[in-house]
Amino acid sequence: KTHNKKMSMAEATAEAIKMLGKVGIAENRAREYPHQFSGGMKQRVVIAMALACNPDLLLADEPTTALDVTIQAQVLDMINQLKEDYNTAMIMITHDLGVVAEVCDDVAVVYAGEIIEYGTKEEVFDNPTHPYTKGLFGAIPDINSHVKRLSPINGLPPNPSDLPKGCSFNPR
Predict the structure, then answer these.
(1) What CA–CA distance (Å, rounded) separates 130 from 57?
(2) CA distances from 95 to 16, 28, 153 (A)
(3) Helix, strand or coil for residue 98?
(4) Where are the alpha helices (DSSP H) in the chain?
(5) Residue 87 and residue 70: Cα distance in Å, rounded?
(6) From CA 101, how far away is CA 28, in angstroms rounded?
(7) pLDDT per residue as tens digits for the range 60-75
(8) What is the Cα 63 distance to its own chain's centre?
(9) Distance CA 39, CA 169 (A)
(10) Contacts from 54-61 at CB under 8 Å and sequence distance 24+?
(11) PROSITE patterns under this entry (predicted)?
(12) I need a surface site. Which of 59, 113, 124, 167 has the fewest CB within 10 A?
């Protein structure tokens, strides 16, 4: 079914094939079943579906999770290109700071459901101000470091149903 578009089945099929082509999936694969696609191809199909209605905003929740590094890079390159081609804004939810560095312009760091730091990618990556953000960057392995252990963030995350007053990170 097409969203807010009146078109015949033939037109819808042609549109679907066009969208699959935009994400690098050949026309001859358009009638295959999901189990016949790799994880990266499934992700491309979902992106094509999301862009088919030409949205002003694309919400991508962990778009590269469970993909190997090579496929992840291809998907990120494709997302960057499609954002430009479709002039679409995107909110990306991810725990992977490498993905953030590759795709995002602005960054919001969330802790216990609250935005605790917001700025351009450069501001947040080069000069984090919140202790949680500093802790995240401190926990990234550095091959050039002589430190043999990662720096964990001490304490436990708060119970979401019983958040402390003020900054939820404060008890840690």
Answers:
(1) 28
(2) 31, 35, 15
(3) helix
(4) 9-22, 39-51, 69-86, 97-103, 121-126, 131-138
(5) 26
(6) 35
(7) 899 888 888 888 888 8
(8) 5
(9) 35
(10) 54/86, 54/88, 55/88, 56/88, 56/89, 57/88, 57/89, 57/90, 57/91, 58/83, 58/88, 58/89, 58/90, 58/91, 59/90, 59/91, 59/93, 60/90, 60/91, 60/92, 60/93, 61/93
(11) ABC_TRANSPORTER_1
(12) 113
Q: Residues 62-114: pLDDT tens digits?
A: 988 888 888 888 888 888 888 888 888 999 999 999 999 989 999 999 999 99
**0.90 exceeded by the pTM?**
no
Angle among Cα 139, 142, 148 to the nearest 5 degrees reads 80
* CA 13 – CA 154 distance, rounded (Å): 53
Q: What is the 3-state secondary structure (H, E, C) of 25-73?
A: CCHHHCCCCHHHCCHHHHHHHHHHHHHCCCCCEEEEECCCCCCCHHHHH
Question: Can you say how many angstroms the Cα of residue 95 is from the centroid of all Cα atoms in its chain?
Answer: 8
Each as own residue / partner, the long-range contacts of residues 140-147 (CB below 8 Å, 24 or more positions apart, any chain) are 140/97
Give the amino acid at 29.
R
Distance from C-alpha of 43 to C-alpha of 51, rounded to nearest angstrom? 12
| Measured CA distances, 149 to 139, 141, 152, 153 (Å) | 9, 9, 9, 13
Residue owning tokens 């401190």: 138
| Residue 9, burial from CB neighbour count under 10 angstroms (0-12, 13-18, 19+) | exposed
